[in-house]
């Protein structure tokens, strides 16, 4: 599978909320780097996504532009969802914001998935502010 195809497939598994599918698409030494710059090891991939989907069951990535340079893929578009966790009835609701993703693909699997976004709208939906 070409790197762009791998990333499109990975995004499809995210949009489907498919934690098993996501786990099958990453390398043994996979790293997930969130929008805050925190790196999470592969061991958190399936559980991490499961927890995220509990909070944001309608989380979606809408890729508008995607291109590759060798095994590195850049995708640009929007992330969206709505907070469904504890206190959701008191918190903000749905959000949608511009985001970018960088993926490094090795042998048809995602070695690194890195998110670039201002997550303040998502934090507000949870009744939180990032810089309090």
Total domains: 1
Strand residue content: 35-45%
What CATH calls the topology is Nuclear Transport Factor 2, Chain: A
Overall form: globular
The CATH architecture term is Roll
Query: Which oligomeric form is depicted?
Result: single chain
What is the CATH C-level name?
Alpha Beta
Mean pLDDT: 87
Order of helices and strands: HHEEHEEEEH
Brief digest:
The chain is of the alpha+beta class.
Description:
By secondary structure, the protein is of the alpha+beta class. It has one domain: Nuclear Transport Factor 2, Chain: A. It is 27% helix and 41% strand. The protein has a six-stranded mixed sheet with strand order 2-1-6-5-4-3. It is globular.
SSE topology sketch:
Elements: H1 3-15, H2 19-24, E1 26-33, E2 39-41, H3 45-55, E3 60-69, E4 72-82, E5 94-106, E6 109-117, H4 120-125
Label this structure with key terms:
132 residues; alpha+beta; Nuclear Transport Factor 2, Chain: A; 4 helices; 41% strand; globular
């Amino acid at each position: 599978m070409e790197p762009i195809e791998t990333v499109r497939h990975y995004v499809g598994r995210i949009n489907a909320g498919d934690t098993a599918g996501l786990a099958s698409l990453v390398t043994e030494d996979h790293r997930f780097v969130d929008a805050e710059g925190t790196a999470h090891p592969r061991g958190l991939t399936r559980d991490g996504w499961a927890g995220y989907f509990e909070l944001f069951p309608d989380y979606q990535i809408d890729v508008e532009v995607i291109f590759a340079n060798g095994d590195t893929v850049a995708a640009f578009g929007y992330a969206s969802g709505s907070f469904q966790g504890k206190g959701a009835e008191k918190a903000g609701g749905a959000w949608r914001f511009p985001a970018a993703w960088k993926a490094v693909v090795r042998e048809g699997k995602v070695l690194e998935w890195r998110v670039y976004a201002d997550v303040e709208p998502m934090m507000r939906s949870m009744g939180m502010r990032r810089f309090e």
